[in-house]
Fold this protein.
Amino acid sequence: MASAKEIADKAERDDIRSRWLLSAPALLIVFLAALGPLLIVVVYSFLTPGNYGDVKWQFSTDAWVSVLLERDVFDDTLSLASAHLSIFWRSVSLSAMTTVLTLIFGFPTAYFIATRPEHRRDIWLFLITIPFWTNLLIRTFAMQEVLRNDGLINWVLQALGITGHPVQLMYTNFAVLAGMVYVFLPLMVLPLYASMEKIDFRLVEAGYDLYATRLQVLRRIIVPLVTPGIVAGSILVFIPSLGAYVTPRVLGGGTSLMIGNLIELQFGQGRNWPLGAALSIALMAIVMIALLFYVRNTTRSDGSHG
Amino acid sequence: MTAIRPAVEAKGVSRIFQGAGQDAVRALDSVSVSIRENEFFTLLGPSGCGKTTLLRLIAGFDYPTDGEILLHGQDIAPLPPFKRPVNTVFQSYALFPHMTVAENIGFGLKMLGKPKAEIAARVDAMLKLVHMQEQRNRRTSQISGGQQQRVALARALAPQPKVLLLDEPLSALDYKLRKEMQIELKRLQHETGITFIFVTHDQEEALTMSDRIAVMSSGNILQVGTPWDVYDRPAERFVADFIGETNFLTGTIESAGNGHARIVLSSGARVYAAAAKDFQPGSTATLMVRPEHAKLVKGAGDLAGTIETIVYFGTDTHIHVRLDGGEAFIVRQQNSRCASCGFERGDKVGISIGDEVAQLLKD
């Protein structure tokens, strides 16, 4: 006859087994699709490039050296790889600007949606997500239609007589920025909306009741309460924009390269897979450092309220 | 009586909510009321009677469709809520979750741009007033419901408003705590001398705390008066019915005059009672008798009937009597002495009613 303890033990064993079974698919995906390939990338970054792409199985740190430095063709001295650095800098600054701009545009949008009557919010959210239905490439080419010399903006500017000749918008940092803000805006609006929706708007009334002006209510009540959404939205926008590839390629051309394009170049025409791999890892490192810095800062400023 | 300048005065205030489609909801229908300085004034009524709407109009969260609201004689229509010297204690408390107890209480003063030292002193005084000194650095999520209630009160009182609005502030508390807070609120009102406008649907709360009560129903104020007025001299049947338990008996007026009238009930019994309005002989009217104002007698009384049930309540006993005319009638007797002694189910009894405590109402 089974004692109570034996039954309890068996139940616990069953419980543990079913938990493992349930998490098996997720673990499988993490190992096969994330950690595995990442390991391959790390290994490749320490190999020698093959002549026609691919790699030679020969240990080398050349790829890592040339992430930041370049070897002079004649005297073999090392100097900073200014091209890489300017691309890194452009990527980080454009991504930061994209994050800030999507926040500036996304905040009022999310606030607007969150303050609509409940049954209408779904319609607005639906409208926000509509661009996702279209392929990124098509959306980016549509932006090109707007920005190019005989595109919509220049046509309007000329029709209004503001400018006599087309303004060069395509293949500039501005074009890349505009394209990325357009593409990533929903990624900012959705988390912002999610945390605004949870706000008890009676708190806003309480703020007004206690002599806070609109601006003070925004700064002292709404923003602190939406901070989790701001953090989530910023991360969701910053990371993919740092690795953005299609948008800078189509709208930035060859002059406004970002890290993503540089990496692609190494695996394509550059035929330097180890360098591409090293750059990928470097990109990941930048993201991690930026995240650590950001999260620590926002949690600290939040803590100072208490 | 000298004319005291009212603290808050509503003149013909209406608020119509334009609903979906054609139907508009009249939340307030040309309401006029005058609330005196330093008064504990209660807006009492069932949910949907417009009491909260009136409060929100005074606070400035909503604007009247028609009419005007004066604060110390000044029209406050052009003032946004953050410029009105009025503070609110919200039903949900609406404490700021990202601030401590002390920061919540100091918020209003901070927004008014008061110097730091003054804010600190005032916050200390408020914490003391509501007995919350020890919890000053807690987050609002870390304190109990009753404590949150105190913080909400302190927060609203800290800027020393001219008028304090309280929107059912006790409804979320359990019975015992509610009783405690009722006394606490009364004390605070007395100590601060601020005009309190208190919204509730709890008639007992209204009776025990208020200086004056306005009884509201479907967007109208039916009666304004002291707790005694609305309880013992209700102007309408709704007021009598809403506040306390009441026996209603219908009949025909036989004679009237001098603020009194004689009514003939369906059983043929005649009762002489105070009249809320002028009655014409021959018109129908309702006789209202509070259960505690009626008394069971062994012999003949004003009314006659048979005891149906005797219910013991501890402090008092309710005796349900079926009158000879067929109506149900409840008599409440205090248990200080043996109230239902000598009475049993099925007994034929008389009920005596004092003519000063019974009241005649129009149908």
